[in-house]
């Protein structure tokens, strides 16, 4: 497999990582999602009473359902992100297991499942972050909208929050370009294990 050059532009790197992700077969994808959930639960430790913000998997994204089940079993309160304003940080609504999600327009042509409007807005203790690609230094390449960078910056100004990248191991690239506004992850969890990010000098 050709390794993309770290000197490529972000759209090219994103496309390369997403092609790898799309190439996973359905059975392998399901097994990898279950392994990643096990790694994430081990890294997080006791979660009773904590608010953990997940994302509802779309398309070829890693399946967050096994992780959600494990977190609920551990007593965590789950939330999902909602785009309130395309230029503002995400908000998070409490995700109760017994309440059906509703589909709303997301960025671009995406349709995103979210909790209903009457669900309480909460502030997460842990943010499980989707991504197109990541590198071992905790840099993340998203889908181009900047939502999670804005959200993490706002949350980190107010309090301590753990940001956990969640993806398949095939989405790792050797090095991603980092800009001043890019928010690093605290760890990345994949089907291959856990990458704990150390602080940069």
TrEMBL record:
Substrate binds at residue 61. Its cofactor is Mg(2+). ATP binds at residues 10-14, 140-148. GO terms for molecular function: 5-formyltetrahydrofolate cyclo-ligase activity; ATP binding; metal ion binding. It catalyses: (6S)-5-formyl-5,6,7,8-tetrahydrofolate + ATP = (6R)-5,10-methenyltetrahydrofolate + ADP + phosphate. Belongs to the 5-formyltetrahydrofolate cyclo-ligase family. PANTHER family: 5-FORMYLTETRAHYDROFOLATE CYCLO-LIGASE (PTHR23407:SF1), ATPASE INHIBITOR/5-FORMYLTETRAHYDROFOLATE CYCLO-LIGASE (PTHR23407). This is 5-formyltetrahydrofolate cyclo-ligase.
């Amino acid at each position: 497999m050709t390794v993309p050059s770290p000197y490529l532009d972000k759209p090219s790197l994103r496309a390369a990582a997403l092609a790898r992700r799309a190439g996973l077969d359905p059975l392998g994808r399901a097994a990898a999602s279950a392994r990643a959930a096990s790694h994430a639960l081990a890294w997080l430790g006791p979660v009773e009473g904590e608010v953990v913000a997940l994302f509802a998997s779309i398309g070829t994204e890693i399946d967050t359902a096994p992780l959600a089940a494990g977190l609920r079993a551990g007593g965590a309160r789950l939330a999902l992100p909602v785009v309130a304003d395309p230029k503002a940080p995400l908000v998070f609504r409490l995700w109760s297991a017994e309440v059906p999600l509703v589909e709303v327009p997301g960025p671009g042509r995406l349709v995103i499942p979210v909790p209903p409007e009457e669900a309480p807005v909460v502030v997460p203790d842990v943010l499980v972050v989707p991504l197109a690609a990541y590198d071992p230094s905790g840099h993340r390449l998203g889908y181009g909208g900047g939502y999670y960078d804005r959200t993490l910056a706002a949350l980190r100004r107010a309090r301590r929050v753990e940001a956990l990248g969640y993806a398949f191991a095939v989405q790792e690239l050797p090095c991603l370009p980092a800009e001043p506004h890019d928010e690093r992850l605290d760890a990345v969890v994949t089907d291959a294990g856990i990458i704990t990010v150390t602080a940069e000098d």
